[in-house]
Amino acid sequence: QVHLVESGGGLVQAGGSLRLSCAASGTTDSTSTIGWYRRTPGKQRELVATISTDLIVNYADDVKGRFTISRDGAKNTVYLQMNSLKPEDTAVYYCRRIIGAPGAWFFLDANWGQGTQVTVSS
């Protein structure tokens, strides 16, 4: 069982930056695509970015050019560097192991983690 733990969130002013981390513990898993999701009260869960094991990345349109997803296999960690943050980026951010293809992702694990809160003030 792989357990993912998100960290790195916080309060930042608009235009600022944060780097989120998604650390995997338990069974070493370097064979999964990882997706960063965010959830805002009153809005649907949104897929923000994905990275495959061969480092193919995809981004949601509203974060392209501002967010960068990367992974460190040696540390079993996936990062989400978020620059030029906007108030609308405020959400709880989660990482999940996923399988499939853009537009048709499925979760490999049953549960969501705690997530990490990102709050961007205007």
Give a structural overview.
- The protein has 122 residues and is mainly β.
- 0% of the residues lie in helices and 56% in strands.
- It has no helices and eleven strands.
- Strands 2, 4, 5, 6, 9, 10 and 11 form a seven-stranded mixed sheet that branches.
- A hairpin with a 4-residue loop joins strand 7 and strand 8.
- The protein is globular and about 40 Å long.
- The termini are far apart.
- The mean pLDDT is 92.
Mean pLDDT: 92
Largest sheet: 7 strands, mixed
Q: What amount of the residues lies in strands?
A: over 45%
Rg, Å, rounded: 13 Å
Oligomer class? single chain
Spatial separation of the terminal alpha carbons: 40 Å
List low-confidence stretches: none
List key phrases describing it.
four-stranded antiparallel beta sheet, seven-stranded mixed beta sheet, globular, 56% strand, 122 residues, mainly beta
